[in-house]
Design brief:
Blueprint (H helix, E strand, L loop, with lengths): L20 H23 L5 H23 L8 H26 L1
Helix pairs in contact: 1-2
Length: 106
């Protein structure tokens, strides 16, 4: 039995591409690796403090991108509006932090 479209022709079935657990396992391992790198940077006592802070900031940004992309599914199609609103929120928060720092020091 075949499906027919309104023109009498055979309808093409479009299968929804199911994302298997492989990508989630890779994202989970990547998240764990980022966390371990951050812990190792702090645990290594002889490392320069500025370098440790830089490593922690880089690991935090990467961790946020992995979390938003894979666990919050923002990498999928149709999620542009939440991405735009989050970018706007980050912009407002960054502007508030810069304004507060400016206000305190000048």
């Amino acid at each position: 039995m075949t499906n027919h479209d309104s023109n009498g022709g055979a309808a093409v079935k479009h299968r929804h591409r199911h994302e298997g657990p492989q990508k989630h396992v890779v994202a989970f391992i990547f998240s764990i690796a980022l966390t371990l790198i951050a812990f190792a940077a702090v645990a290594a006592g002889g490392v320069n403090t500025a370098f440790t802070v830089l490593i922690l900031l880089v690991m935090a940004v990467l961790q946020v991108l992995v979390q938003l992309g894979y666990w919050m599914h923002l990498k999928d199609k149709g999620h542009m509006i939440p991405i735009i609103f989050m970018a706007g929120g980050f912009f407002v928060a960054a502007t508030a932090v810069v304004a507060a720092l400016y206000w305190m020091w000048w």
